[in-house]
Amino acid sequence: MPVTTLQLDHIIRELGLVKERVTAWDSKIEARAALVENKVVKQGVKILREENKVLKQDVDVLQKKNNKLEEDVKTNRTNILKLDRRTLVNEARDKLRDEFSFTQDQLNPFKYPGEPGEKLKAAANFVLSHLPRTEQPKLSLNAVKTILNKFAPTD
Hints:
It is built from 4 helices and no strands. It has helices at 5-99, 104-107, 116-130, 141-149. The termini are far apart. By secondary structure, it is mostly helical. 79% of the residues lie in helices and 0% in strands.
């Protein structure tokens, strides 16, 4: 059957309407795809934020552990220094007793007359004055006081 111009015009209009509907559907499909993609991205961001929150908590825990370890290191260093100082003081006192023949009583500030500060000074002056002349310049009054102040009778 032959097609008339009027029928062709009608078919063309129908094709135009179909084309418009297809374009509208394409736009809707793209919009929905963008929404789905946006939703997926938002979910991904939400997951990453949760992971970041957990990581921050882990960092906080590790920071607290690190701070505790730093305190422990500082305490240990202080204790080691105190121990080293005590060892040096004990060695110095032993040297005074063993090499320079001071008695325990002569090295014990509590055996001297006077107030506690005066007893320590008197003991230090006694030790300094009874050291050989070659050894006297090696020790100050304060050094001898430190050595004698840490006196702990071993008897």
